[in-house]
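Appendix B, record 7
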Amino acid sequence: MPADRLFLLRHARTASNVAQTLGAGHDDPLDAVGEAQARAVAAHLAALDLSAPRVYSSSYRRARQTAEAVADALGVAPAVLDGVQEFHTGTWAGRPYAHLHTHLHEWRHEDGTPGFPGGESLGGVAARFLAALERTTGLEGTPIIVSHGGALSAALARLLRADPAQSWREGRFTHGNTAVTELLADQGQWRACRVADSSHLND
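Structure tokens (predicted):
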């Protein structure tokens, strides 16, 4: 029976998150706060007593480190899932996060589609994320996918049938570090039980 419950979460904090710069490399590690956040979200997910949990992450170090903490708490082995990695930010690498608000009129490809100049488009990231997701939700159990802020925003707009560009502008699916989104299957569609929940960090 295919999965009827899905968890998506952003990796824990890194130095690049603190610096608020785009385009962190593949090997950007968790900082001390991030390590504590990873333990907190791991404990939260373990307390849910999920049915046959399966933990996946992007290949980036920060996502793998977060997934390892979650998998350890659940007593399973994590797996890397190609397709859920962060945007390739192209010529915007090194620019501040704030430019995604103050310079959003420049955040376009030559054909006018939303995305990073010289990098990936909003639609392209959503498509590869959803293709990866299909490889996990067709199996029994409960998939938990550790990904990245931009990639999650792109994918959730598609999964929840929202306008992608408008959702991005409004920050509708913005996730803080280790924020959790829980989706439930409903007649062949995913619906949100909670979105970008960080309450476990307050416990």
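Remarks on this record: The domain at 5-202 is CATH 3.40.50.1240 (Rossmann fold). The two ends are 34 Å apart (CA to CA).
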